[in-house]
Amino acid sequence: MNVMPENILYNELIGLRVSVVGSTDPSQLGISGTVVDETEKMLVVSTTGSARRVMIPKMISRFSFFIPDEVVVEGREIALTPEERLKRLQRRH
């Protein structure tokens, strides 16, 4: 399944370009790069221009994914494992 704005919640996020556009933690704002790993509660982002990896809590953040158009997603909407998000999609159909 191709990642599109209408189905981003149910797709693999690893490999997508992302930017943190909202967070209750001001030190997280503006972090951008590529998603390299994902857990139920965190996105691991390899930041642009360095080999640094940053763990971003999903529940307190808002993310902008570029697929290639920009799609803004509330972190609480993706605060599940990728497998659980897929199960939700299957239950809806």
From TrEMBL:
SMART domains the UniProt entry points to: POP4
Biological process, per Gene Ontology: tRNA 5'-leader removal
EC main group: hydrolase
Keywords assigned: Cytoplasm, Endonuclease, Hydrolase, Nuclease, tRNA processing
Taxonomic superkingdom: Archaea
UniProt-recorded Gene Ontology molecular function terms: ribonuclease P activity; RNA binding
Catalytic activity: Endonucleolytic cleavage of RNA, removing 5'-extranucleotides from tRNA precursor
One GO CC term on file: ribonuclease P complex
Principal subcellular localisation of the protein: cytoplasm
EC number(s) given by UniProt: 3.1.26.5
Coiled coil regions in record: none
Function: Part of ribonuclease P, a protein complex that generates mature tRNA molecules by cleaving their 5'-ends.
Assembly information from the UniProt record: Consists of a catalytic RNA component and at least 4-5 protein subunits.
Protein name, UniProt field: Ribonuclease P protein component 1
Organism expressing this protein natively: Methanosuratincola subterraneus
